[in-house]
Automatic annotation (TrEMBL):
Start and end residues of each Type I restriction modification DNA specificity domain: 115-293, 422-538
Keywords, alphabetical: DNA-binding, Hydrolase, Restriction system
InterPro entries in the record: Restrct_endonuc_typeI_TRD (IPR000055), Restrct_endonuc_typeI_TRD_sf (IPR044946), Type-I_RE_S_subunit (IPR051212)
EC number: 3.1.21.3
Domain of life: Bacteria
Name of the protein in question: Type I restriction-modification system, specificity subunit S
Record's keyword annotation contains Kinase: no
Single GO BP term: DNA restriction-modification system
Family to which this protein belongs: Belongs to the type-I restriction system S methylase family.
Lineage: Bacteria, Pseudomonadati, Pseudomonadota, Gammaproteobacteria, Moraxellales
Organism name: Psychrobacter aquaticus CMS 56
GO molecular function, one term: type I site-specific deoxyribonuclease activity
């Protein structure tokens, strides 16, 4: 996505559609695979390019570079005078409280040069900001889940990430006569203020609501200040950067005081209306691109899946050779994404353990424990010290990429016996027993002695017996069949780190051909993986 990130935010300001059309291949081809655990997921990719395109449109909008300026437009200062008058009236009527004098906006808070007629403000100059009310689960169920007349209650989970409609039908209704609940009027802009979704989840209400205490409601003081323009600001990268810098705490959140002091730029009323209309049109175009690209990606993924199945389900090596030959003619068309190449690599591993690469489909299968001379045995994670030590312990990241990254290790000062099993030696196989789900069960073969390094508690170590080649055993454990076996036996997947235990690892089914055939499989897998590497290089 390097091309996209180098695009100048100042270019094509008068014709932003051209920015999309001229670089359409960039926006639609940038796709990221999502992390998946083997238990299935809905979409296994993210249309990253179109996500970045939406961000760019919003950034252009809030900087005044999306539509032309018009010298006949009333300056924003006139609009802000109306806002101030309306706010003063609400204070006089005691509808809202008087706020403390605001600090001047410093140069550090001025993220960009203001267009003609625009003016910077702090949020609480132009918005009535307040949070909602929390309801515990018991009370929700007993008191508010069977109400027929009242206001919908919107929690964080009911808010999307921008222009989506809020979910008003979660089954929770607050009776009209409840006095303690704050009400956000139709047209209020909601933003999540706490937790992992802070500053990300936003939306506009289309009706009066009650809402959760982790959400801030933002009501405009004057009708000429459009809630849609406020929402665009909240969704822009510039605003999110401000928001993030003001967050504190372990959970991550922003106080009302800090939030209300964040800065946005207000355009003239007429330009604001043009911006809102233009963004609406461009977001619709993004929706269409997203649908078309998503359909294309889904179709491509299905095609790859079906064709790879013809390989892994071949009845013998002769049929495999024929199927491979047919598919190989279209490699440059089929395997054009990182995800599709990874699927090819997985198919190769499954073909290997089924005996399809050597035409031996009658391979004896034994549990892993029958082919080990050592292990599985957990490692040790001594307390880290803040100075460099001679001995180091690997972190989980040291083996997560499929290569050994010794720089991802920690210093410690505990004495480890010279003959301890913890030291890394040639042909050790390390298996991650606990991590995020996608890495649980992943393994790495150590190709040479690694003096001075031990493995951590969240890894297990095994060593192959003389009946099995260590490289072949690593291939077996890396295959989708073996990974699924371990994933299906993970524990602690809800709220805690998922793990597998030694019993699960010991019981992994291992096809056990002769040592000669194992060597042939290792060599053949090496050849085929080299093809995958070549395909990946073409993506660069």
């Amino acid at each position: 996505m390097n091309e996209q990130t180098s695009l100048d935010i100042n270019q094509e300001a008068d014709h932003p559609e051209q920015l999309i059309i001229e670089h359409i291949d960039i926006w639609t081809s940038a796709i990221l695979a999502k992390s998946t655990s083997g238990r299935g997921s809905s979409k296994k990719y993210e249309l990253y390019g179109i996500t970045k395109l939406r961000e760019l449109i919003l950034e252009l909008a809030v900087r005044g570079k999306l539509v032309p300026q018009d010298t006949d437009d009333e300056p924003a200062s006139v609009l802000l005078e109306k806002v101030a008058a309306e706010k003063a009236q609400l204070i006089k009527e005691k509808v809202i409280k008087k706020t403390k004098p605001l600090p001047l906006i410093s140069n550090n808070e001025k993220a960009f040069e203001l267009p003609q007629g625009w003016q910077r403000v702090r949020l609480n100059e132009v918005l009535n900001i307040f949070n909602g009310n929390s309801i515990n689960a018991r009370l929700k169920e007993s008191k508010y889940s069977n109400v027929t007349n009242g206001l919908p209650y919107v929690g964080t989970k009911d808010v999307g990430y921008g222009f989506e409609t809020l979910n008003y039908d979660n089954g929770i209704i607050i009776p009209y006569e409840e006095p303690k609940f704050r009400v956000a009027k139709a047209g209020s802009v909601l933003i999540c203020a706490e937790g992992g979704s802070a500053g990300k989840k936003c939306g506009i209400t289309d009706r009066d609501i009650c809402f959760g205490n982790k959400l801030y409601a933002n009501e405009v003081f004057h009708k000429d200040l459009k809630p849609e323009f406020i929402l665009m600001n909240f969704l822009s990268p510039t605003f999110f950067s401000q928001f993030s810098d003001s967050m504190t705490g372990i959970i991550g959140g922003i106080s009302m005081a800090k939030f209300s002091h964040l800065v946005i730029a207000i355009p003239p009323k007429e330009e604001q209306q043009r911006i809102v209309a233009k963004v609406g049109n461009l977001m619709l175009l993004c929706d269409q691109l997203e649908q078309q690209t998503g359909d294309s990606v889904d179709a491509h993924s299905t095609l790859v899946e079906v064709l790879l199945a013809t390989l892994t389900e071949s009845i013998n090596s002769d049929e495999l050779k024929q199927n491979w030959k047919r598919i190989a003619e279209y490699f440059d068309i089929l395997f054009t994404t990182k995800q599709s190449i990874e699927e090819l690599a997985k198919a190769i591993l499954d073909m290997a353990i089924k005996g399809l690469l050597t035409d031996n489909l009658d391979i004896k299968v034994v549990p892993l424990e029958k082919v080990l001379s050592f292990g599985p045995k957990n490692g040790y994670s001594p307390r880290e010290v803040d100075y460099s030590s001679e001995a180091k312990v690997l972190s989980l990241g040291a083996t997560s990429t499929g290569s050994l990254l010794l720089e991802k290790s920690k210093s410690f000062d505990k004495e480890i016996a010279a003959d301890s099993h913890l030291w890394l030696t040639k042909d050790d196989i390390l298996i991650q027993r606990g991590n995020s789900a996608e890495y649980v069960g992943s393994n790495l073969l150590i190709h040479e002695d690694i003096p001075g390094f031990i493995y951590p508690d969240l890894m297990m170590k095994i060593q192959a017996d003389s009946c099995i080649h260590p490289k072949y055993l690593s291939i077996v454990l890396s295959s989708p069949t073996s990974r699924r076996f371990m994933w299906e036996r993970m524990v602690g997947t809800s709220g805690t780190m998922p793990k597998i235990n030694q019993k699960t690892v010991e019981s992994v089914p291992v096809p056990l051909p002769t040592l000669e055939e194992q060597s042939q499989i290792v060599a053949k897998v090496g050849e085929l993986m080299a093809i995958c590497d070549q395909l990946k290089e073409k993506l660069q």
